[in-house]
Specification:
139 residues, Double Stranded RNA Binding Domain, two-stranded antiparallel sheet, alpha+beta, four-stranded antiparallel sheet
Amino acid sequence: MDLEISPSLTIPAAELSWRFSRSSGPGGQHVNTTDSRAELMWSVAGSASLTDEQRQLLLTRLGRRLVAGVITVTASEERSQLRNRDIAVAKLAELIRAGLVPETVRRASKPTRGSARRHRAAKELRSATKQQRRRPAAE
């Protein structure tokens, strides 16, 4: 089951590794016998499906989540291992999509004449209020 992130990026199933363990939460005695918690691991640093630019972008943006270049996603919301696997895949895909979104460049803008006028009027009003609070000068 390959993981399709975008039309141009698909991660082969061979690059994904799974680990299952017992999950906490609801389920009664069933929870003590099944490994329903799913952990999905993918090596960003060692992936052959990424370009160098994509790899560098993910390594910098997901740096806090990476351990030795590997990103780990955990899902234990459901009682079923199959549903937790689907959730983990969706979480990983969303993380990668968010990490690869191009950064928008902010263009500097100038305040409008009206907003500058209102800003100045507010400052003058505040100044007048503070001047009225002063103790009168002793002459």
